[in-house]
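Hello,

I think I submitted the 1,3-dihydroxyacetonephosphate job twice by accident. Can you confirm which output corresponds to this input? Input:
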Amino acid sequence: MPVRRKIIAGNWKMNKTATESQILVADLLEKLNKFDGAEVVICPPFTSLVSCQQALGKHTEIDLGAQNMHQETSGAYTGEISAAMLKDLFVRFVILGHSERRQYFGETDEIVNQKAHTAIKARLRPILCVGETLSEREAGKMAQVVTKQVQASCAGFTEDDWSVSVIAYEPVWAIGTGKTATPEQAQEVHALIRATVEKMAGKAISDKLRIQYGGSVKPDNARLLLNQPDIDGALVGGASLDAESFVAIIKNACQKEEIS
Ligand code: 13P
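Support: Only one job matched these inputs. Its output is below.
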C-alpha cells in the first residue's frame, strides 16, 4: 500500500483583499513554524495570488492554488482567467468543479472535465470536487451521483493525469453548515471514489490517488476524519481564514488516532 502524503488545502472563497491575504500568509508561516508533516496549499482569490506569492517568498512549506480557471487557453472570454496566467504566478494547484461553481455558475461535469485537461496540459494540478446534495443523499442517490461525477469529471485521464490530480469529496450539505459528515460516512464515500477510480484506471493508480474531505472541517474534527483509511487530506473553507484554526487542522490531521 503506497503512503499517500496528506494534503490540506484552504479554500478562501471570496474572502480577503490582497492586503489582508498578505497578513494571513505571514501569520500562517509563523504558526506553521516550518512544519512539513503534510502538503499545505492555500487557494486565495485571484486578486491575492501575487501578494500571497510575495508573502511566501522562498518559503516552500505552503503551495499556492487557485479556486477556478477557464477551460480555453486564451481568447475573447471577458472576465476569465487562463491556466497559463495562473502558472505564470507560480500557482501549482487549481480547485475545479467546486459545488458553488456547479450551483451558482452552471458548471457541469463536462466543463469540469475540459478544465481538468486544460489545467494538466498547463502543468497545474487539479483538485476535482465532487459531492451530493442533501436531497440526493436522502433519496438514496449518493453513490450514483458521486460515481457519475468522478467518471465524467475525470474522463479521458491518462496515468500521468491521475498522478497529478487530487479528488475532493465535499458533501454539499456539509459545506458552511457546521454539519460534518461523520468519519464513517466520509470514509464510505471515499472508499467508493477509490473503487470507482480503480475501475477506470486500475489499482496501482487508485492506491496512489489522494482524496480530500471537505465540509465544515474544524480543528476538533480533523483528526478523526483524517485517520480514516481513505481520507488523505482536507479542503477547508471557513476555518482556513484564520491562521490559528487552519494550522491546528494541519497539525491535528497529521496525528495518529490514539488507541485507548
Ligand atoms: P467549509 O469548510 O466552510 O464548510 O467549506 C468547505 C468548502 O467548500 C471547501 O472547499
